[in-house]
Automatic annotation (TrEMBL):
Biological classification of the source: Eukaryota, Fungi, Dikarya, Ascomycota, Pezizomycotina
Protein name per Swiss-Prot or TrEMBL: Uncharacterized protein
Keyword annotations: Membrane, Transmembrane, Transmembrane helix
Superkingdom per UniProt: Eukaryota
Residues annotated as transmembrane: 29-47, 98-119
The keyword Transmembrane belongs to this UniProt entry's keyword annotation: yes
Length: 316
């Protein structure tokens, strides 16, 4: 009968057409049915075995009774010490039933193992989705991908300058005038307040030396009432290739800057300088920006155009 049950279960598993999310619960249900059937078969076997044991015990009891009768004639044992028919039968039956029911969970577990293996073998892991492809880095600030051989670097510095926005603009507003950050262009083209202007600078690249760099003004927007300005510029000759002093090649894939100045009352102004770049070597943009902000404050103080102290710079 057990073979017929297993054949029935195997046929159901074979003919099931559900995907794993549908037929796994059915397998659990089948395990319950199998356990019920096994328990039923076990109980039937227990009854049959109990009957066999009872019959055997009956004949054994008859033989044992004769033996005790003979023994009592020689040893004079009282009849109360003889084991009874019911004692023998009950003891044997309890032992047999206990043994059968003790191994029933083991049988169920053994039958469950192949089914679990089948369930695992039919599991199909979901593919890991690929991250979306990022656009190439450019003048629009957004998540982007740098060229091969470079990696993304970003820095933002902010300071509160103790001078009016118009006085600060007179120092840093002209794109072609750069003495305030420590160097002047080798040559320039265009007008410092009109997009398209270019400045050709000599810049130091860490571990490589001095190289010519071209930067181009792309956006210039003054705020009304001399309340500041907004400026964007970027490398005009990217990508730029160079050699490190070790002989290894280097790449400057591009730089994109934002300068934003806002008036804070009539005697102070905020100054934000942000840059993101694709570079093959580390560059201390934070140190460069903070040094320039401190230098500009000193220039304004020397001109007598400051009131109070510089707040910052703060970088992140």
């Amino acid at each position: 009968m057990l073979e017929a049950v297993m054949e029935f279960v195997a046929r159901i598993l074979y003919e099931s057409k559900c995907i794993r999310g549908c037929w796994l619960p059915k397998i659990n249900f089948l395990f319950i049915i199998i356990n019920i059937i096994i328990s039923t078969i076990t109980n039937i076997n227990n009854i049959n075995k109990s009957l066999h044991i009872t019959i055997r015990s009956y004949y054994s009891q008859l033989s044992l009774s004769k033996s005790y009768t003979n023994l009592s004639h020689t040893t004079h044992l009282p009849p109360s010490t003889y084991p009874t028919f019911n004692q023998v039968t009950t003891d044997q039956t309890i032992k047999m039933r206990f043994s059968i029911f003790a191994i029933t969970p083991l049988i169920a577990s053994a039958l469950a193992l192949p089914a679990a293996t089948v369930a695992n073998s039919n599991y199909r892991p979901r593919p890991t989705p690929s991250p979306p492809k990022l656009p190439a880095c450019g003048p629009t600030p957004q998540p982007c991908s740098c060229p091969a051989g470079t990696y993304y670097q970003v820095s933002t510095s902010v300071a509160i300058i103790p001078a009016s926005a118009s006085d600060l603009q007179s120092i840093i507003g002209d794109f072609l005038q750069t003495a305030w950050f420590g160097t002047s262009p080798e040559s320039v083209t265009g007008t410092g307040f009109v997009p398209g202007a270019k400045r050709h600078l000599l810049g130091e690249i860490p571990g490589a030396g001095i190289y010519p760099i071209t930067e181009e003004l792309t956006v210039y927007k003054p705020y009304p009432n001399n309340a500041g300005f907004f400026q964007k510029f970027q490398m005009g000759d990217a990508p730029f290739y160079f050699n490190l002093t070790s002989g290894a090649p280097g790449i400057l894939g591009g730089t994109w800057d934002i300068v934003d100045v806002h008036a804070i009352g009539s005697k102070s102004s905020s100054w934000l300088w942000n840059i993101y770049a694709c570079f093959s070597v580390d560059f201390d943009f934070q140190g460069f920006h903070e040094s320039a902000m401190n230098n500009v404050t000193d220039i304004l103080k020397g001109q007598g155009k400051t009131s109070g102290n510089l707040i910052g710079p703060f970088s992140y």
